[in-house]
Amino acid sequence: MKWIFVLLFLACAAYVHLRGRVRHGFGRQLLDHSTFMAPVNVLMYLCSRVPTKPFIVPEQHFPELEPLRQRWRDIREEALHLRELQQIKAADGYSDVGFNSFFRRGWKRFYLKWYDEAHPSAAELCPRTTALLREIPGVKAAMFAELPPGGELRPHRDPFAGSLRLHLGLDTPNDDACFIDVDSQRYSWRDGEWTMFDETYIHWARNDSAGNRIILFCDIERPLRFAWARGLNRFVARHFIAAGASPNREGDRTGGINRAFKYFYAVRLRAKALRERNKRLYYALKYLLVLGMVGFIWWL
Questions:
Q1: Quick one: which of 121, 123, 37, 97 has its CA closest to 244?
Q2: Domain range list for the chain
Q3: Using the 8-state DSSP alphabet, how is residue 161 labeled?
Q4: Which InterPro entries would you find in this protein's record (predicted)?
Q5: What stretches of the chain adopt beta strand conformation (E)?
Q6: Which of 25, 148, 218, 266 is most open to solvent, judged by the fewest CB atoms within 10 Å of its CB?
Q7: How confident is the model at residue 102 (pLDDT cuts 50, 70, 90)?
Q8: Residues paired with 218 in a beta bridge
Q9: Does the pLDDT at position 105 exceed 90?
């Protein structure tokens, strides 16, 4: 029976690794969070009611999102006001695991909600946008995301396939030099226009233009065919993804993952220092750790 589970896990991990045209190297993929989530993600793909491809046309599958596009100017007004207040900013300290991993090169954010009600700061500073989001239950997370000239988002894939990513252009360079690349397909943001993509494909972004870029960034619940699949999706989102909540300022909720992240980051800094001193030892310990985890699971 253990061998059956091991083989199923390996088959799911291989599928996640091979499903796109762009792939991580074997060493990186081995420790990538998407590998550990592979069995759940494969279920999400199999049960999906929307195409499982890099880009999806939102108006074809999510008519309930249309109010966001219709009221983009109202949303932009609150986003620009936030920028004037310097509230769209980098994470303070080590309270945002995503920001401190692949979002560090110029990327800034202001969370509107994260798998819960709006942050108190968002409800106070962005009342119209948070009220609009509250009327669309399928929007599980939302933020204003800024990418200034020279800013970059590193290539990565998100861990969980239970959602799809919506980007709505608010204040953009309207320039092809400011773009996101999803599985080697590029999209350049435009004011008042949107795109939707599957964030479990490898994606990255750059702003090589002279203008700033601010978008509304939303996670939309993936429509699934079966009630048990929808229940599994919401269970994972509620108990694991919600733990990634990060505050905009004091008084906002911080999820358990981000409360623990400052301790993990201290270990990570030591690991980076070891890699600089002795790469062979660093990678030997890294793969021994993986083998130890596999052995522990097998022993259970």
A1: 97
A2: 55-253
A3: T
A4: Asp/Arg/Pro-Hydrxlase (IPR007803), Asp/Asn_beta-hydroxylase (IPR051821), IPNS-like_sf (IPR027443), Lipid_A_LpxO-like (IPR047694)
A5: 55-56, 108-114, 139-147, 152-156, 163-171, 178-182, 185-188, 194-197, 203-207, 213-221
A6: 25
A7: very low
A8: 142, 166
A9: no
Residue 263 confidence (pLDDT): 62
Question: Token digits for 136?
Answer: 């669309």
Distance (Å, whole) CA 11 – CA 17? 10
Please state the φ and ψ torsions of residue 263, each to the nearest 5 degrees: -75, -40
- Residues constituting the chain: 300
Beta pairing, strands 213-221 & 163-171: antiparallel
Could you tell me which CATH class the domain 55-253 is placed in? mainly beta
Tens digit of each residue's pLDDT (9 = 90 or more) over 44-67:
999 999 999 999 999 999 999 999
| Distance separating alpha carbons of residues 49 and 60, to the nearest angstrom | 12
- Residue whose structure tokens are 């699949």: 229
Residue in this structure with the two tokens 């609009």, named with its chain if needed: 132
Backbone angles phi, psi at 155, to 5 degrees: -60, 130
Determine which helix (DSSP H) or strand (DSSP E) holds 124, and give its type and residue range. Answer: helix 120-125
Residue among 48, 47, 50, 46 nearest 59 (CA): 50
Neighbouring-strand partners of residue 141: 114, 219
Judge whether 261 and 247 are in contact, CB under 8 Å: no
Distance between CA 171 and CA 191 in Å, rounded?
Answer: 6
Give pTM, 2 decimals: 0.87
